[in-house]
Specification:
The chain has one domain (about 45-295): Lipovitellin-phosvitin complex, beta-sheet shell regions (Roll). Helix content is about 15%, strand content about 45%. It has helices at about 1-40, 135-140, 240-245; strands at about 45, 60-75, 75-95, 100-115, 120-125, 145-150, 160-165, 185, 190-200, 205-220, 220-230, 250-255, 260-275, 280-295.
C-alpha cells in the first residue's frame, strides 16, 4: 500500500512538472510572438540614395575583367582565355540646379592579354607598348578619347547618353545603379527592364530582361546592393542561352552614401550551356568583373564600426 502511495505521489509531481514546462514553453512562444509584433511596429531606417558630384571633378576607377570560355563542338574542344586591367575616368562637366549630372566617360589605360587554343597569345599594354597588335588596334584608338557623354538624375537614371561611333566595352556596361526616387529600407528590392539582342538563324531577336536590385546591408553609410539579371522573355533555344550568359549579371555593388558614388563592383559568372551547336556541343563560361574607386578620388573616410541592418 505504501509503495502505491509513493508511486502516486511521484506521478503527480511529474505531471505537475510537465504541465509547468508546457506553460513555460507556451509563455516563451507568446513572448516571442509579442517581440516580433513589437519589432514590426518599430519605425525602420530608410535611406535616400543619391549621386553627388561637383563640376570639374574627376573620378577614376580600376577595372579588372577575367574570362575563360570553353567550347566543345563535334568532339573538338577550344578554350579562350582573356584578362583585361584598365582605368576609366569620369570627368564631371556639369551639375544643374536640379542636381542632374553630366559627365564624360574616358578610357585612361589598358593592359590586355588573350590566349586561344592553337594560337599564339596576344598582349597589349597601352602604358608601355608603342604599337598595338592587330587584335587590339581598335582598343588603342579608344585610349584617352571620350567613349560616351552621359547625363543622369541624382538617383542615377539616365536622361541622355551619347556614345562614340564604336564604343569599346570592358565588361559590365551599366555605368550607374538607378535608385528609387523615394527613400528605401534594408531588404527592399526594385527593378529596371531592358532588352538585349541575340542572333538566331541569321536574324536578330530581342530578349527582354529585368535587372533586380536589393539593398542588402548598410554599414556606416556604406551600402551593399545585390544585383541580379532575370530573363523575362521565355525561350528554349540553347543558341539564345549561349549568347545570354555574358549579358546576365549576378553580384554586388558598394555605394558610399556620404560621398554619393559607387566605390566598387563585383560580379561572377559560372555558366554552362549544352546543345547550342549540335546535340553534343557544350559551352562553359567562367568570368569575374571587379571595379574599385581610386584612393585619391573623393570618398568619405570612416571607421570600421558598423550598423547591421540586414533584413530578417
Amino acid at each position: 500500500m505504501r509503495t502505491f502511495f509513493i508511486a502516486g505521489v511521484v506521478h503527480l509531481v511529474f505531471s505537475l512538472l510537465v504541465v509547468s514546462l508546457v506553460h513555460a514553453e507556451d509563455g516563451k512562444s507568446d513572448l516571442s510572438k509579442q517581440l516580433k509584433a513589437a519589432k514590426a511596429k518599430l519605425p525602420q531606417n530608410t535611406f535616400l540614395m543619391k549621386y553627388k558630384f561637383q563640376e570639374g571633378e574627376s573620378i577614376e576607377w580600376s577595372v579588372r575583367h577575367l574570362a575563360t570560355t570553353e567550347t566543345k563542338i563535334k568532339g573538338e574542344t577550344q578554350e579562350a582565355q582573356s584578362s583585361t586591367a584598365s582605368s576609366k575616368v569620369w570627368t564631371i562637366e556639369k551639375v544643374d540646379e536640379d542636381g542632374n549630372i553630366t559627365f564624360v566617360n574616358t578610357l585612361k589605360s589598358v593592359n590586355m592579354w588573350k590566349k586561344v587554343t592553337g594560337e599564339s597569345e596576344v598582349r597589349y599594354n597601352s602604358s608601355t607598348d608603342d604599337e598595338p597588335p592587330l587584335d587590339y588596334r581598335s582598343v588603342a584608338k579608344a585610349i584617352g578619347v571620350p567613349l560616351s557623354k552621359v547625363t543622369i538624375t541624382p538617383t542615377g537614371h539616365v536622361i541622355k547618353h551619347t556614345s562614340a561611333s564604336q564604343v569599346f566595352e570592358l565588361g559590365v556596361a551599366d555605368l550607374t545603379v538607378p535608385f528609387p526616387t523615394a527613400a528605401i529600407r534594408v531588404g527592399q528590392k526594385w527593378h529596371t527592364t531592358d532588352e538585349v539582342t541575340v542572333v538566331v538563324e541569321g536574324r536578330s531577336k530581342k530578349i527582354k530582361v529585368r535587372q533586380q536590385f536589393q539593398l542588402a546591408t548598410v554599414q556606416t553609410a556604406l551600402a551593399t546592393i545585390k544585383v541580379k539579371t532575370q530573363v523575362i522573355t521565355p525561350f528554349s533555344n540553347p543558341k539564345i542561352e549561349s549568347q545570354l550568359v555574358q549579358k546576365i549579371t549576378h553580384g554586388t555593388v558598394k555605394f558610399d552614401m556620404d560621398a554619393g558614388r559607387i566605390v566598387s563592383k563585383h560580379f561572377d559568372w559560372d555558366e554552362s550551356v549544352v546543345g547550342f551547336n549540335g546535340a553534343d556541343s557544350r559551352l562553359k563560361y567562367l568570368a569575374r568583373f571587379t571595379e574599385k574607386i581610386h584612393s585619391d578620388s573623393k570618398t568619405v573616410r570612416r571607421n570600421t564600426e558598423s550598423l547591421d541592418l540586414s533584413a530578417g
